[in-house]
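Observation: inputs received (chain + guanosine-5'-monophosphate).
Thought: call the complex predictor directly.
Action: predict_structure
Action Input:
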Amino acid sequence: MDCIFCDIIKKEAPSEIIYEDEDIIAFLDINPINYGHLLVLTKQHYDNFLTVPEDMLHKLISRVQFLAGIVKRATSADGFNTMSNNGVAAGQRIFHFHFHIIPRFENDFKFNLISKSYNENELKTISAKMKEFIEIYSGQLNG
Ligand code: 5GP
Ligand code: ZN
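Observation:
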């Protein structure tokens, strides 16, 4: 399978690695939104958030928390975004699941997401549908 992030993990493609352990690696995004923009991922290839096994996800999110503190300190950022894109519609371009940590500075830019509002019927319809799926899938929840 062709995956640039797997190549980076195998050191067959160049990257500026900031952190790695047995399971997790973090390297600088080649086209940063701000300098210090970090990508954090499992060394095992999983294509999106929903396919990462839970124990691996716990380790990944723990490293994201640790590294967000490092990014903030190292860049003297005022804040940071942690985010992941899942699926083409959400802007995912590399299908090896990763979190972005993006250092942010006062008034650097705004995400131009346009918010909607609900009427009562729309609110209850989507709520009922979600609760129905929780009933169906809650057996998959651990702990
Ligand atoms: P996505 O859109 O999938 O959430 O994010 C993919 C990210 O990977 C982008 O921000 C892009 O700049 C970064 N990227 C793509 N190819 C490479 C690469 O070869 N090396 C590094 N370091 N980052 C990459
Ligand atoms: Zn991969």
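Thought: report the result.
Final Answer: The domain at 4-111 is CATH 3.30.428.10 (HIT family, subunit A). The first strand starts at residue 17 and ends at 20.
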